[in-house]
Structure formats: C-alpha cells, structure tokens
Amino acid sequence: MKRTAAILLIAAIIVTTLAVGPSLAQQKTTITFWHAMGAQLGKTIDMLVNEFNSKNPNVFVKAEYQGNYGALSQKLVGSLVARKPPTVAQVYGNWAAEYITSNELVPMEKFVKGPNGLSALEIDDIWEGLRAACVFNGVWYTMPFNKSVYVLVYNETALKEAGIAEPPATWQELVTAAKALTVKDGDKIVRYGLGLRPNIDYFACFFFNAGGAWLDANGKVAVNSPEGVKTLQFMADLLNKYKVCYYVPGYLDADFGAGKVAMYLTTSPGLSYTNQSVAGKFEWSAAPLPYMDPKFKSTPVAGTDLAIFARASEKEQQAAWEFVKWLVEPRQTARWAMGTSYIPVRKSAMHLEIMKQWFAEHPREEQSLKQLRYIKYDPNISAWSNIRGDVSEAVEKVYLGKATPKEALDAAVVKANARLK
Amino acid sequence: MRTPIPFRGEGKRLLPLAPSFLALALAIALFLPIQQGACAEALPASYDYYFGNLHSHTSYSDGVLTPSDAFKHARDAARMDFHAVTDHGYYMQEATNLHHWFMALEEADRFYAPGRFVTLIGYEWTFTDGHINGFDTSRAASRDTQRSVPEFFEFLAEHSGIGMFNHPNYGIQPNWNDFEYSGLGDAHISLLEVGSGPYRHNIRNERAYRRALDRGWHIGATSDQDNHRADWGTAAPTRTCIIATELTREAVLAAMRGMHTYATEDSNVRVFFSSGESVMGDEIVIDPKALMAGEPLEFRVYVSDPDAADHLELVQIVASGGEVVWESELGQAPPHATGAIGGAYETVVTLAPRSSYNWYYLRAVQGDDDVIVTSPIWVTTGSGIAVCDFAPADAVVREGLSTRVKAEIVNRNKGAIDRVKAVLYETGESGRRAVSSQCVDLTGWAGTDIWFDWTPTAPGEARLQLELVLPGREVPELFQAAPILARGAGITRVLIDEGHNNRYSGYMDGLIALLAASDYSPEIGEHAIAPEVLAGTDILVVNLPEIGFALTPTSFEQIELEAIAGFVEQGGSLLLAGWSHSADGSRTSEQFNALLQLMQASVRFADDELQMDGSSSIHVHWGPGQGSGRPIFASEACSLMAAGQAQAQAPGTTVLARSAAGIVFAAGELIGSGRVACLGAPVYSLFDLKRELFANSDFTLAVMAWLAGEEWTAH
Q1: Do B687 and A251 touch (CB under 8 A)?
Q2: What is the residue extent of each domain of chain A?
C-alpha cells in the first residue's frame, strides 16, 4: 500500500513538472549582457545583476565579462559578423556610431518614449552632458552607464611641506607646484612633481582646458589648432623644459603611492586604486583639472554607455530595457557609483541618503562631481577610434622627441581627415 | 663523472648537468656518426639546442583562440620544440576569469610530450615600469594584486619563480627605472627579450640588454614573439634557443634559470659560446691577482646554420659597456668558407678581463641581416661588486678645469658592506696617480653613487680607474672607465641661453652632443646675462624667448641686452635664432631687433612665417650654388630683412641660407670685433638634428665655425 502511494506521488510530481516546466520556461526571458568590468568593478556588476535577477522572475540577465575594452570591442565585432550579438553591451560612443550605420542598435528613444519609458522629469534627471553624448544624428541611441571624469590627484602632505596651501587650479600654478614638488638627490630626480601618460586622454585633459575643440565648424578634425599646439607644447615642456614630469605608458597610482610622483591625473574610478596604493602613507586628495583660463574650465568624460542590439527579439529587447532602466534608477546608479567610483548618472542620486553619507566619508569622490557641469566628450563618429590612435601617436611622438607639437599634430590631422572621407 | 659547477653569485640558477646524460652523450659523440654537419660536437655532450617562444597570448587575455590552439599551431605549423602561453595576469583574477589559469594549465598538460614538445604556462605581469613574464609559479601575479615592482619580485621569490624582462624598449616603457639594480629581482629575473614581437620583424632591444648587464643584472637573452594573433611561432622566424640536457619541462625551466639561452632571428642557427667548462649564462670567478697581472682567458666561439643560404657575415664578442672587444675578420665569411654545407665557424678568442666585473656575449650577423645574441659569460673576482656609469658628468672635460666624475657601485651581495675605501686613479704612460679617495658604505642588493672631483692635467686621452678596497679582501677590486678625451684650455666655449623661456629650452641636448664631439665646449645657461657670465664665453646662443607664463623671465632686461651688445663689440660671437610671428603676441622679434639696433647691425628679423606648400615646415638651401646638396629643415621660421626695408639683403651682411623661394633665412654680420649670425629658426633642436635626410648638423657646425672666426666657406 505504502509502495503504491509512493509510486503515485512520484508520477504526480513528474506530470506536474512536465506540465508546469515548459510554461515557466516560456515566461522567463534570458538576455546576455557583455561587459569589460574586471576585479572590484566586476563584483559590483555581479551584485547588481544578481539583485535584478532575484527581483524580476520573468527576466534572467546573464552577465558575461569579456576582458578589457579591447577584447570586448573585438568580440562585439566578431559577434556582429557571426550575427550573434549579445542583447545588451557596454559600448563606447564611436563603437555605437559604427554599429548604428549598419542598423545593429535599437534606439534607446524607442523605449524611453514607449509605454514603459521614462517621464520628462526622469529624463531631465540624467546629466545633460552625458545624455547629449548618447545622441547620434539627433536620435537617442544609448544609455549613459559607467561614466567618469578626470581629476588631478595630489599628495596633500607633500604640497603642505612645499608651502603650497591649495591644489593648483591654473596651468601656471600647476607648473609652479610641480617644480616645488620635484625632489632631486644629486643628479637623480627621486620624486617628480607630476605624472602623465602620453595618450589622447591626457592630451584631452589639457586641450579642453585650453579652449580646444576636436572638430572645426565643418566637422573636420582640427586638433592642430593654435590651442592644440599650445597644449602639446605645454605637456612636452613639463617634461623637457621644466623637467618636473614623469611619463609612463601604464598606470600611475602605484608610483603615486610609492611617492615617485606627487600629482597625477586619473579618472574617478582610479581613486580607489590610488587609495589602495597610498595605503595611509600620506594624506592625499583630488581636485578639478587645472585650466589655462577660467573660461575654458572643463573635463573630458570617459567610459561607456549601454546599447541594446537590434538582432534581439522584441521580447528580449523589452527585457533588456527593463534591465537598463533599472540599472540607471537613482538607487542603483548610486550603489554603482559607491562600488566603483564611477559617477552616478542621475542628478537625484546625489540627494539619496546613502550617497550623502558616502560623500561624507569619501570627500575626494565629490571632486569629480564638481566638474559635471563642464564635461566635454569625444565626437560620436565611427572613425573616432582610429582618429584617437592618430592623436595618441602625435602625443607620443612629441614625448619621444621625434617631432615638434606642430609637426606631429599637422600629421595627425592629415591622417584623421583622410579617415573621415 | 660530474661537470664542475662554475661560481654563480648567489647560487640561484644553474643546475648541475646530469651525469647520466653526460655519459650517454659522450658515448654518442665518440661512437656514433654525427648526422647533421658538425653541430653536435660543438656542445658539451650533454646539451642540445631547442628552439621556441616564451611570450604569447590567447583569448584568455587579449589574444585569440585558446592555449590548445596556440600549442597545436606552435608544434605543427611553426615546428618549435617548446612554446609558452603567457596571458596577462590581470585577466586571471578571482571572481572573473581565474578559471582560465587552471584551464590553461590543463591544456598545457594535454599537449606536453616529453622529448618532443614542451608546453609552458606563464603570465605577463603588465605594469607601468615595464612588463615582466613570470614562469614556474603555482598562480599568476597581476598588477591588481602585486602593485609594485618590489611586490612582484617578492611574489617571484615566494613561489621560486622565473622572471623575464619583456620588450625592454626605451620607446615603449621606462624599463624598471632604467634597470635600477635590485638584488631580490636579480635573484629571480633570469631573462630579457633581446628580440621582441609581435611585428613581422622583431624589435631589437640590445641597448637595453647591455644597460641591464652593466647595471649588474644577471640575465640571459631571449627572442620572443608576443603573439596576439593565431601566429604562434609563425609570426616571424625569431626564436629563443635553449641549451638543455633534454626536452622536458624541468630541463627547459632549468636552462631558463641558468640562462643557457640565446636570442635568434634565424629559426635554426646553432650558436655556442663557452670558456673552459663554463657556457653562456655562467659566471667564471678569477683570482683578483690574475686580473692585476692581466692574465687572459680563452673563449670558444661556435656558429653553424643547417641552411646553406644563411651564410655568416660577422661574429663579434661584445663586453661590458657595449664595447666590441673582438670581431671576426671581414671576408672570412664563415662558416661555408670550406664549401661544406652545414659546416661550422669555430674559433678560440683570447681576452684579458680588465675589471673585477666583466660580461661578454657573442653576437653573430648572417647575410640576410639576421642577428643572434647569446646570454653572457660573466668573468668576475667573486666579490659581487659591479661598477657602472663610471664617467665625468660633463659632456666636455677641459685641461685645468675641474669636473665631477660619477660611479655607481652595485653591491650584488645581500648584506651591506661598510667602510669601503674608494680611490680614483688617473693612469698614463708613466704609471698611475691617485686623484682622490673616500670611504663609502654600500647598501646590500642595491647600487650606491659616489662622486669625485677630477681636473685633467693635459689635453688628450685620459684613463681613469676606480679601486675599491673591501674589508676582508686582500686584493682591491679594480674598475676601468672608458677613455676620456680631455680638451685643451683654448677650446671654443659656447653658452646656450635657457634662462629666458627660450624656444626649444630642454631640447638642446642634440646641439650639446654635436658641439662636444666637434671640439667646442657647450654649456646651458639658466641665469640672467651679465658681463661676468659672458666673460667665460666665446659664442652666445640665444633662441627667441616666448612671452607668457614660465618659471624663468620671458624677456630680457635692457641691462642684459646691453651686456650682449658689449660682448659682441669686444669680439664675442652671437647666434640669434627666431620664431615665426604669433597673433597672440607671445612670439615677437621686437627684442631681437632692439638688440640688433643697439649693436647698429643692418639685419633685422621680420614678423612673418616662412611657408612651403602651405606648411610651416620648410626646406632651406645653403652651400655652393644655394640649391645643390642636402637642404636644411626648419619649422615655424621667420625671414630676415634689412633694417628699414622688408625681405631684402641687408648691406654688409653675408647670406648664409635662403628659403626655396629665395628669401633670406640666415645671415651673418661683422660687428665691432665680433660676429653675429641670425637664423629664422633654431635648426639644431633635438628634433631637427634627428632628421637624417637634412643637413642641419653640417649647417650648424658651419655657422659655429664662422662664429669662431673662420671664413664662410660654404658660400
């Protein structure tokens, strides 16, 4: 008797499973999310994705780390060729520009203005500069996600020892401070005032602050403008004329922590690395980027946006939008910012109690946000990733003493404009 | 039978040769016919040559496909004996892709075939100072976990790993603060990429290799491909060759630790460099007395290529300081001189060590320009002391004028050595004389700088020696500086102004080197110009100051202009170099023209810009016929004109150079007892002198010679 009952029970379970199983599976939409966030950043992504998955029984987000941005780009291109792109991915503006030309992205506008979209107030709550960078030919295509701005990191202890009360705000003050902070032992420089990297991003930090613009009125690359030449000359002078600057192709936080450089530029997420490297050895802080003239005060914005791919089914696209929308809600963007030091993309996130408390504990992080009104971004044109290479090459050439700023930038402009044809 | 183990410093690296292999190989050598040319007998019998690659990537970091694909390709397509996959460490961290590290190890085990193909998994520690590959550790290091060079060295030490300095190119990375010595690092870094990919033709890093050796590092030579595409081993014929007892992982790793390697751009050339029982990678310890007595050592040189087309052009032995101390005679054309394909070039070279710390490596060049560089053989007195950068700090040293001489003493021993007596000697035909002496404490496992004052007593070649008396060692350690050319007291002295935010401040190193090599004594001036500053000067060089913010004044005071005018009036020479006019007023010829007016010169700088095809980079012609020969390169230049009239030759001046359109670019004028040369732009910045197609160096020297009182011969 007992045995019969057991068999009946098992049969009932099987029948129930068969009946219920497929219908559950039909309801749940799985979407893939490709990202390039390793280490601590990856952990924060996983934390948010897990939370989303547990709160949304109908959607399952599969977050997949693809390596660094180079690897992500390579894999995205490969997936598009193979017609198997993810549903959502982190993309740079110029990648998006390229995908848009071949209709691979669904405009974010479709969802934002759809029935489950964002209100006018919510749209306005996203920082204008970040939103503007997501618009391509007048259409809103992507959603700002992991955005950062550059700041000047400085060794507060060393600055005080040198008798300088405030971090440098202008280029003149930057040179003066860098000179005062450069320490020699015999013929060896044991501490450089400033650390820089010879690439377009560091160039941009100075170029925008000298009033430079990447493109002229006709949409041509105009980085060899007097502002461009002046900027590159200034960067080279820090190295060769004033001899106060240390330049390396790699990351500078470890050198800063080791006391080899007293100031350097980094993006906001770099601050957590800085903190690890300094490890309490001295006081340090961050300040807005120095400018040539107050009217040019600005900072480049770096980082990627989220894109939804057109090859996904309507259902997957809607599920992806659900996820994207949730990620940039004030509470999530605040937690994202706290876990990674990226900037929160929503203004209202700043008013959340958790964010206020966090800024109170991490005053340096707030420095980035002071600059949010002055952000400048790269042109959203598909040729830009290659043009970035052209400008970086010019910067590197000048650093290595292979060309004058004018020659190097003239050559970069010829190359860059050929790519626009 | 057991091969004696040569001295190896801290005893970190070399494993003794396995006696069984020695015996077996000896038996083969004695009783079996040799299959391939004369190669086999050149090696001590226990060794063989294995060719492979120690640096590559897959999709486990930023490359493509998997380690399995890499090993398959390296084995089947490239036909290499060993291959290492070394993905970036920061890709293999916890919670992200740590599993890739273990997958890679498993894949390597699947492809490992002892005796046929050795697979290795390492990682690239990608860091600011330079990238380092790590091998033979149970997990990968990354810049996120080992956040400084010392931390990475500690990681290697903790895991008894092997390190390799990757692509040590000065144009790519700062090379670990220019190979600043670290004893802990040296104990575990065994190799350096003398050749590095990923390009079709490898990048040669011999300069960095020599620098690292000079600074005391014990490292061997490799040539690797750094593949990021599916071309593991086929991207180029470059290979790392390992001399090992057998083709097993253990033997390959032992050879890497022992630096029994060479870097080759040819895929199968066999090279062997030895002295007695020591082979490349070994250290030979000699008696300090033998060094004093100048007793020589014999080095055996062996090069052989199985391919008939790969004939040998040149063989050299390169020693400390990068000096070529022996070279095969040209035309000797080994190894096929005998006509025997597969024949070998073999010779014995006798060299006498000069210092207590010497390194020697073999360098061979084939007819197709393939270069082969071996690991060094060190010859030392066993004190663990090396000396580098032993030279005067000034570019030019002059008879009767004191100069500072620097030497970095590298203490390769872990413990500090206190109270070392350092004596500087000047040697000559009549023996040697002590210049000065001091006591110095040497930090353990690091370098210590010392400085001496020295005044050359006569013009000509001077030789300096540094003697270090170490406590407890009977015979002093001896180190030689490269010969120094002391100039006569009457040499022409050139002062280059950098005290006024001058154009190209910080870019005058090329001019200084050019003048120093051409019998001038150049110097940078960073102070205000005054008669007493000019008293020790024959030629003053002033590039146009830029007005604006700077840490120095950006224009001249009237009193400075008067001092310059007085200097020229009394026979001094002046070189003024301009800059094209800028609309914002930061570059103006106003002060230069005021100075010229003060001197009553007839030449003036124009506020314009010389252009060529719309570009501010122009070609300027000089010399006989003004258009023949190589032009001068100039950028952002202005033209010259006569006082009161635009773009015409000023009366009483000599035109030194003209633009392609015939506009005056450079002119010279005699004023009082002195001479003034005006140039539309400095054509001697570091940028300008690097342009090989242009005659900027020749023109600069011609102008200097004219300023020094010679005739303008080029006109």
Answers
A1: no
A2: 7-148+302-368, 150-300+377-420
